Amino acid sequence: MINEKTPAGDDVTMQIDWDKAIDEILADKTACLRCGNFTEEILAGYTREPWGADYAPRCKSCTGKEECDARKLVIVCAKCAQELGLRARRVDQQTMMGMLLNDCRKDLEECLAYLAEYWQEDMDVPPEDADKRLEEFAPELYAEEDEARRRLEEEYLAHHRWYREHGQRLPDPGWRGDYAEEIIALGYTSLLGD
Ligand SMILES: [Zn+2]
Ligand SMILES: [Zn+2]
């Protein structure tokens, strides 16, 4: 996703109020993101189709919705899911939070892999520059990557707070430590570190 420059990596200026976004979606009775009807039955499913960007909470600040080909978690009512032809299943709040958290983690893992290695393939770095770090080789791209990663880390912290505030157990809590160790070992800082 990051190396394909999908909108998640492009919208460097937008800030998401994740607590608010999540609260809106996950109130016990919530409005369908498509039709606006209040419903207790919420369905969640994935699509790469650009239309999904309008109904995907993690694409809220996506600046390229028309061509967004990221794998998006779309959250709508049953009627809308049917009209859209979305492969979706009924989810409760906890399941949906787990899906959002998991997607956020996957994006952070991609950031990590990109910083560690993939950027060299992505930019077709000549062998004589193979020892360089991304911030030396392409400072502007690095700044974009760094900003995108920071926003994902902020999102992660918002998810984390949600679990704490709702007295629920965070799935796979060791993930955070593993991620932070790796990013710090690469010589970068992280909001998820110590
Ligand atoms: Zn609907
Ligand atoms: Zn998007």
SSE sequence, one letter per element: HHEEEEHEHHHH
Low-pLDDT segments: 1-14
Strand content: 5-15%
Bound molecules: zinc ion
Large-scale geometry? globular
How many β strands by DSSP? 5
Helix content: 40-55%
Number of helices: 7
Q: First CA to last CA: what distance? A: 27 Å
Main sheet makeup: 3 strands, antiparallel
Please identify the structural class as seen in this structure.
mainly alpha
Average predicted local confidence, pLDDT: 85
What does this structure look like?
With 194 residues, the chain is mostly helical. The protein folds into two domains: 7-90, no CATH class; 93-185. The protein has helices spanning 7-10, 18-26, 78-84, 93-122, 134-137, 139-165, 174-185, and strands at 30-31, 38-39, 42-47, 72-77, 88-90. The chain has a three-stranded antiparallel beta sheet. Helix 4 packs antiparallel against helix 6 (139-165) and helix 4 runs parallel beside helix 7 (174-185).
Features:
single chain; 194 residues; mainly alpha; 2 domains; two-stranded antiparallel sheet; 7 helices; disordered N terminus; binds zinc ion
